[in-house]
Every structure is written in C-alpha cells, then in structure tokens.
Amino acid sequence: MTSLQSDSNLENTRLEPIREELIQTAVKFLQNQSVVGTPLAQKQKFLQRKGLSDKEIQIACERAGAYSLHENQSLTLPPPPVPYGQQIQISLFDKIKELVHNVALFSAVIYALYTFYRKFIKPYLFGDPKKKTVEEAVEDLSKTVDSCVVELKEGLANVKSEVDKISQISESNTQRQLQNMQSDVSTIKGLLLSRKQFPSVSNSPVVPPSIPAWQLASVPQDVEQDRKSEELIEIGSGSTSSEPEQGAKNSDSSLEIM
What we know:
single chain; mainly alpha; Arc Repressor Mutant, subunit A; 79% helix
C-alpha cells in the first residue's frame, strides 16, 4: 500500500505544473539578507507551508544559490591562530597580575598577624614595657647636656688653636717685613756712607784769562770789571760745592739717629 501511495505522489508531482510566479517569489525570499543566515531546512519548511511543491522549492533553491550557501556554511573554518608573541604577552601579563595579587594578599595577612601579635600576644607573654621615671629622664637629659658641653669645648679649643696659628703666621710675616725694611735701610746707609769712593771736586784756583798789552791801555776799566766778575764766580762756585757736603753730613746724622 505504501509503495502504491509513493508512486501516486510521484506521478502527481510530475503531473503538477510548475508555477513560475511562486518560484520567483521564493527566490526573492531566499535571497533576502535577513533570511540568508537561517538554516536551509527551516527555509524549505517555510516554503512548503506557503504551498510550494518540492520541485518548485528545489528550483527556487537552485536559482537563489541556497545549496552552495548551505555548503559554505556547513564547512566551518577554524579560527585564525593567535601570534606567538601575543600569546606570550597575554600570559606574561596574567602571570604578573596574579603575582601582584598574591603578594598584596600575603602582605595584608602578615600585617594583620603582626598587629594581632603586638596588641594581644606580646603583652600577655612579656608584659607591658616599663615607662621611664622622671629621675631617669632627667639623668638622660643631663648626659646629653654634658655631651653637648664637651663638644662645645672641643670646638672652642679648635677655634683657639686656629686663631693662634693665624696670629703666629701674621707675626712671622710682620717680622719678615721689618727685617726686609732694616736690610733695605742698611744698604741705603752703606751707599750713602761710601760717598768718598767717588772723585772729589778739585779746589785748584781758576786762572783768569789774560788780556793783551795793547788792550790794557785802552780798556783798564773793563779789565777791573772782568776781574770782579771772576771773583764773584769763584765765590759762588765755592758755596755751591760746600752745599752737597753739608747735605751728606745731614743725611749721615739722620741715619745714625735711626
């Protein structure tokens, strides 16, 4: 019976005319962008509910390219591999993040344990530390003051030694300058005392110029005036030569006083 029914269905499908309008509508439906992503079986069931035959659905799928699209969708491509360097960076960042998180957690736990030990366990085991009395505080203060005084004395001693060194240096410099001045004065004195080494000015009388005999009778008055002028010149030269000797004597006396 079933074979007869299937044969009858095939004959009916062969005898049914192909409706081109429905096929074109189905092609537009299959090519719609909102329907392309749906599975092919679901689209075929929808077309069957709309009254299309299997032959018409097959033709519409062939024209719309639904079979090729279904094959492409069925062949799922593997995701692209992640680059090796990027994998290392991501894993390294995750490791660092996890390490920092663990360190922070460990530090918080240790701090909590230390606080608990300091506040509760340590006083119970060792007791509270004794506070210093007033006498002990005063004694400590006196020790610090004594140490400060000792340091101050040492500083003053150092300053005094430096001042003594500076004064000694200045005294030695002044003594050296005085010695230099004394040596200079002695050299000048020696130079002034050794004036006798230079040649002295001759004290020979100046011979007056003679006048010819033939002029004596004519100009006796002129000769007398010339003689008087020569005598005055000699007197002036003698006074000028005695002045440097007197200056030298005065300088010698001044040096002897020094």
